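Project outcomes to date are best conveyed with an example. Our students and postdoctoral researchers have been running inverse folding experiments weekly, and each run begins with a structure described purely in tokens. The record below, which covers 554 residues, was selected by the lab manager from last quarter's runs and is presented without edits.
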């Protein structure tokens, strides 16, 4: 047999032989899978055939590989048989928390040599990141908050911190700063206990020299916990360093820091020219007995958005005292005892009425003053006043009535709007009545006028009417159009409508009086079909009225 031909390793001459002739799946394996809706990387594939795993590569490179010598194709299995969710999904929103502290050296201070600063260490299980936060304390004077931002922290050996590195009673170092762990929360203890790591009892924080001295001086100056301190009298409780009156302001500030009484009030200035009734919000700061007043704006109130009406400062009861240039005394300014619901306060010549307060203010007054019944809100709403509708002047006869009405309602007259619903639905509906002249005390009829007959037509499309006189022989009067189609005034401010037309009605048309004698069949039928509009055509109501009159007779 001839020797085996070796193909040169040139571009286009390379042959990729399959692992087995029976294996026809030459596609590239997928490396990304979805498990329960989450995407994660698929596990690696391993070869189960020992021959293929050890010698197939060398045999192929040396040219001694013959696929016919292998009758079965190799099988591939994953390294992990069970597919589970990734850790960032399983441990989402799971955070371990430890409590600890570190000591910070204090130089050039006769009160303390070091200061104990408490911290909270967070460990996020979803990405094994850590975060160190120092809880904020009131009036500490220290920049507190996040000390170490959230990220993965390396240890000295190059590995990253894990939950097992945090032990209660042990130290942990982050970037050259040593933290001592004193306790862990319930969730952390339970999670680590399930993993086989038990924690001992919690430790206590060490005493801070400055805090200890501060508390002892506070008990000494306040006389212990006698319960006589009250925010109303700033000189009885709080932190004071000396027994002089100059430190009472500091004591008041420390005890009432960030305590603000909020009242709602109104200022009625409608007696003045262009005055109005405007709402305000009054803030009384207990820490320094100052007052500020803010304006309450509403949408489209027509006022400039100036938020501060009175800037923060002492509010004198008599503003004439400020003109003397002397320093205001506490008795000359408004205090919490002067602010009550239903009371008036004078703000530089303006009377403000207090009608409501927030929940904190009501609770503060009930605990310190005992005023519980007097803190009920007072209603100050006046309701919406109806806008007066100006009366139309009498019609002067120039132009149409609608044009004159528009000139009274608008500075620049606009064309009167038409009722397109009536134009579309009642275009060809015409009510016709036969009429005649009626003699009045101011107008006497001649013999020829008494015999004249007319036809009055009312057009529902635009509420106009016209009068036509049928020609009669041997009367000497030429018949034809008596009145052009137009709207007719009922009085000085109202037009005739369809409700004013019924048999027996007397109409005054341009100083002529007409009486409606009868109507055509269409008019009768239309009125009876619309009895809710034409009340005189309601025969049922007429029968009931006649029956009631007959029953009332003896």
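After processing, the design step wrote out the following sequence:
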């Amino acid at each position: 047999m001839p020797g085996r031909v070796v193909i040169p390793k040139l571009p286009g001459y390379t042959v990729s032989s399959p692992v087995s002739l029976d294996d026809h799946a030459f596609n590239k394996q997928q490396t990304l899978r979805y498990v329960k809706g989450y995407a994660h990387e698929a596990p690696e594939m391993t070869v189960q055939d020992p021959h293929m795993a050890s010698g197939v590569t060398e045999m192929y490179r040396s040219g001694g590989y013959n696929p016919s010598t292998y009758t079965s194709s190799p099988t591939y299995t994953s390294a992990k048989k069970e597919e589970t969710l990734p850790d960032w999904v399983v441990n989402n929103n799971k955070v371990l928390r430890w409590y600890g502290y570190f000591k910070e050296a204090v130089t050039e201070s006769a009160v303390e040599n070091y200061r104990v600063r408490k911290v909270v260490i967070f460990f996020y299980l979803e990405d094994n990141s850590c975060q160190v936060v120092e809880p904020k304390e009131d009036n500490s004077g220290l920049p507190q908050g996040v000390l170490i931002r959230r990220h993965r922290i390396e240890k000295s050996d190059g590995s990253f911190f894990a939950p097992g590195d945090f032990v209660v009673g042990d130290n942990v170092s982050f970037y050259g700063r040593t933290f001592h762990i004193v306790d862990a929360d319930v969730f952390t203890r339970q999670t680590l206990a399930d993993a086989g790591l038990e924690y001992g009892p919690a430790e206590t924080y060490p005493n801070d020299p400055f805090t200890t001295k501060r508390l002892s001086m506070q008990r000494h100056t306040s006389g212990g916990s006698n319960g006589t301190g009250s925010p109303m009298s700033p000189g009885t409780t709080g932190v004071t360093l000396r027994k002089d009156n100059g430190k009472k302001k500091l004591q008041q500030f420390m005890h009432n820091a960030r305590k603000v009484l909020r009242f709602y009030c109104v200022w009625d200035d409608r007696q003045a020219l262009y005055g109005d009734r405007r709402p305000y919000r009054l803030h009384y700061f207990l820490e320094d007995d100052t007052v500020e007043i803010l304006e309450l704006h509403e949408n489209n109130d027509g006022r400039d958005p100036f938020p501060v009406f009175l800037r923060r400062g002492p509010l004198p009861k008599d503003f004439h005292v400020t003109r003397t240039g002397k320093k205001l005394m506490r008795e000359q300014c408004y205090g919490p005892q002067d602010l009550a619901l239903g009371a008036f306060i004078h703000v530089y010549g303006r009377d403000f009425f207090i009608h409501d307060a927030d929940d904190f203010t009501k609770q503060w007054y009930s605990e310190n003053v005992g005023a519980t019944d007097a803190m009920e809100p007072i209603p100050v709403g006046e309701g919406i006043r109806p806008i007066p509708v100006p009366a139309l002047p009498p019609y002067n006869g120039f132009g149409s009535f609608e044009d004159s009405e528009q000139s009274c309602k608008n500075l620049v007259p606009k064309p009167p709007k038409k009722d397109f619903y009536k134009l579309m639905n009642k275009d060809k509906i015409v009510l016709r009545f036969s009429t005649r002249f009626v003699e009045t005390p101011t107008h006497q009829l001649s013999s020829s006028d008494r015999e004249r007959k007319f036809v009055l037509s009312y057009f529902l499309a635009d509420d106009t009417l016209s009068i036509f006189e049928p020609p009669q022989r041997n009367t000497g009067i030429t018949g034809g159009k008596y009145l052009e189609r137009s709207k007719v005034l009922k009085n000085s401010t109202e037009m005739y409508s369809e409700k004013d037309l019924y048999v027996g009605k007397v109409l005054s048309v341009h100083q002529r009086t007409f009486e409606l004698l009868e109507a055509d069949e269409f008019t009768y039928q239309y009125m009876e079909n619309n009895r809710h509009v034409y009340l005189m055509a309601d025969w049922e109501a007429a029968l009931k009225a006649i029956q009631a009159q007959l029953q009332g007779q003896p």
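Confidence is low (pLDDT under 50) at residues 49-54, 64-81, 224-243. The longest helix spans residues 209-222. The training component of this project remains on track.
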